[in-house]
Write a structure and sequence with these properties.
By secondary structure, this protein is mainly α. Helices cover about 75% and strands about 0% of the residues. It has one domain.
């Protein structure tokens, strides 16, 4: 007879499988952002607009800062997403038994890397165009 509160082998497997799917979703998200950053780098938006591209008040100030931001941010985003893909793969391999921690750590890494790409771009814009 099982003790109250203990999960069967099947329940533990499906719980771990569900958590690992969440980690793989983060990995897929980072991979998609990597492809998007490549496309934005290769085909940057030429004219300042309010709908597409890297759009902040600093990047939309003039055409020179707009052009710079449209090339610089995809490069920073791509580099940070390469880091996320590699780090998440390592996290999956090292923390397979602790899938929940791997999920949380991977999500935090994805979020911080995305924010870092924006902060670095804004810093660079401020340094070159202010």
């Amino acid at each position: 007879m099982r003790a109250r509160g203990s999960a069967s082998l099947g329940e533990r497997f499906f719980f771990r499988f569900e958590l690992m799917l969440s980690v793989f979703e983060i990995l897929i998200t980072a991979s998609v952002l990597l492809v998007v950053s490549f496309l934005l780098y290769v085909f940057p938006f030429k004219k300042i607009n309010r709908f597409f591209g890297y759009r902040t008040s600093r990047s939309m100030k003039d055409i020179q800062s707009w052009s710079f931001a449209q090339k610089y941010w995809p490069k920073m985003l791509g580099l940070s997403m390469i880091f996320v893909v590699i780090a998440t793969t390592v996290i999956i391999l090292l923390n397979f038994e602790r899938a929940h921690e791997a999920e949380v750590l991977s999500f935090i890494l994805l979020l911080l890397s995305f924010i870092l790409s924006i902060v670095l771009t804004e810093f660079r814009l401020k340094r070159h165009f202010s």
